[in-house]
Amino acid sequence: QKGGTRGDDRNDATVRLEFEKLRQKKAYTDILVARKRLPAFAAQENFLNVLGKNRCMVVVGETGCGKTTQLPQFVLDSLILAGHGSEVSIIVTQPRRLSALGVAARVSAERLEDGSVGYAIRGESKQSSRTKLLFCTTGVALRRLGSGDKLQNVTHIIVDEVHERSVDGDLLLLELKMLLQNNKKLKVILMSATINHEVFIKYFNDAPLLTISGFTHPVKDRYLEDYLPSLPYRPSGKGVKRPSEKEREALVSQADNTDESLLLALHVISKADRVDVELIAALVKHITESNTNPGGILIFLPGVQEIQACLNALKSVPNAKALPLHANLSSDEQRAVFAPTPGWKIIAATNVAETSITIDDVIYVIDSGKVKEAQYDPENGLTKLEEQWVTRAAARQRRGRAGRTKPGICYKLYTRKQESNMQPFPIPEIKRVALESVALSVKVTHGDVKDFVSQAIDPPAMSALDHALAVLDELGAISPEGNLTPMGQYLAMLPVDLRLGKMLVLGAIFQCLGPILTAAAIMSSKSLFVSPMDKREEASQARAKFATGNSDILTDLNAYDECARLREKGTSRVRAFCEENFISTSTIRDITSLRQEFLSTLISLNLIPRGSTPSSPSLNTHSSRTGLVKAVILAGLWPRVARVVLPKDAIKFDRVQAGTVQRANEAREYKFFDIRVGDQGGRVFLHPSSVLFRSAEWKSPFVAFFQKQQTTKLWLRDATEVPIYAILLFGGPVAVKHVAGGLTIGNKDAFVKLRAWPRIGVLVNQLRRLLDAQL
Ligand code: ADP
Ligand code: MG
């Protein structure tokens, strides 16, 4: 069969004929008129020329110029018309699921749903033998390459938004750089916003660059010092003291200006350390009141919480529709931002609106200047989502979103001076996140982790890789000699946090999978119980009703199960129940879908039988044994364990509530020690929101936790009391040293040997018998 590498049943001539028919249709030509106005269209010939002569090229252009939606179609159309339609297969990668779905839908619509466009994101795909343009996430493409696929059947791979410098993006470029040497057919196109693109050109041995010149209208900048003094709003900052002389000096140096109201505002903003949504609301009112022609206002905020707060503050703006835009929305909710509205369209967005999504009618941009970014702390091996200043490159992108259809204005919630202190470019993600997942997948695909990763555009510090390998050893994913273990092989195939993956594998082996699926889903979701500022006490009492097993995870699991039971009786009851009990219905949904996702992955790994459900009896033989469930949770989380110093030497402590410090009478402090670090410097505190905080009865002085959180103190929010024997069985030699030290047990060496995960299959029965006897 001719060409047909993707299994297309039509020959070149038929594909061409069908495309020519498509081009005659009125609906197609109607859209084409609009498409032709995009700057990308003017560059079409040039683009195809350069591509024809090279195997790799870089394309840059302002956001919205038509790179993503048009260039892949140029490649496709030209090949169809040249009579190669049956064999063409183009992959376009997108950094996020949201953009992969959105762009696939858009391009498919531009081709009148002719079946040539498909998508593939984790756990969901739509493609057929006739798919010629496949939009997938960077992660999907990376896993495909990682599984040994040499892309023999792919003619072009287009890597979009390379300027974002995500770990997956950087690794994909590394894979492709190597693949270009072996696969002589494949062509690679990198697409980037105009940010620091020279590094890609250099990395791909002076690949040719095509710049698509934009058509953006001029955008005026309004910095804090420009508008605040004349705005009828002053940040109030309840409880914030006036700046001291020294603080005042520092403020002047940030503002280059001694306007008192401006300095005070800066002071409040810096003290409150959060985005001032009142100020944003005042700006929006100023804009809508001083302009008679309504248009779009795009507000950049660091996170979902700020988006919610902002939408609340904007409720009273007349003749306006305010909408959220962030990665956690459903595709329908996301699509809402594209719909035309008669009045003002106000969109409160995270940085997803910076480059990957274009909303045409935006005239005003309000930039908070803040972004939440993953920050990895190699000291304690935890990744934190931290709010920080955006880079100047990102600020420029945000500003550029105004003025797409006419001249615009960008209001910035910072001063010129503050902007000049921002980092010029983002630090590549690979240099600031935990690398154990990366190390594991590279171990599987390339063997030598350091050798491979050191060839990335910006290789991470070798010490970071050493740490990652040590963690893999600790998890039992690799042997002390560095060889992949069976557990490691499973973990590499599970698309979840490695610890949760290990928990799932063990949950399947120990036949208590139902609760473990839920527990792992809870740990990968946002908080199940919400705690509104003004109703903290009520919320915490609501949660306390579900308290069980001295465990935050089991408590949440209990509440989730109750919801699931009610759902069988009809959804209206569930909603009321959630409202009464401060349970987030969207988190319930997330947990349900994650459970299903975990389950299907375990099935695809042959760890459990096809057709299993979370409640299948064969998966749940031991699910009612709380001790065993806790042991499995611990096995995944190890060594994230702290020793509780019981009230004997407990001291009073200050409870921090809503920004003010209150002395809580009955509050008890348990001193916790991260047992890996021992007694020195490893002090952590149980967060008052933990159900264990009020617990009076302790069966074991150990708790396992998933995350530590640094605010005023180092807090544990999700603790689970774990049986001592579970630690001895699932912990490593350190556990024996720290835990068994105080116990009378026969043979410590035996416990050390039990850590031999490579032989997990042999040990399972032994462990299960031991656990059954001990717990
Ligand atoms: P780039 O990748 O260069 O940032 P895109 O190809 O994503 O640009 O977008 C080009 C243009 O296509 C946008 O400016 C917008 O006019 C239009 N467009 C993109 N996606 C959609 C959509 N979902 N609905 C309507 N128009 C869209
Ligand atoms: Mg794009």
Overall description:
There is one protein chain. This protein is α/β, with parallel strands linked by helices. It has 32 helices and 25 strands. The chain has an eight-stranded mixed sheet with strand order 4-3-5-2-6-7-1-8, with helices on both faces. Strand 23 (708-710) and strand 24 form a beta hairpin. Helix 23 packs across helix 27 and helix 28 packs across helix 29. The longest helix has 20 residues, at 585-604. It is globular and about 75 Å long. 43% of the residues are buried. The structure holds adenosine-5'-diphosphate (ADP) and magnesium ion (MG). The site of magnesium ion has 4 residues, from helix 5. Adenosine-5'-diphosphate is lined by residues 38, 61, 63-70, 102, 106, 338, 358, 360.
Q: Which runs of at least 5 residues are low in confidence (pLDDT < 50)?
A: 1-5, 646-671, 675-681, 741-765, 771-775
Tally the helices.
Answer: 32
| Main sheet properties | 8 strands, mixed
Backbone shape:
globular
- Which sequence of strands runs across the widest sheet? 4-3-5-2-6-7-1-8
Secondary structure class reads: alpha/beta
Give a count of the beta strands, DSSP E runs of length 2 or more. 25
Name the beta content range.
15-25%
**Helical content (DSSP H or I, runs of 4+):** 40-55%
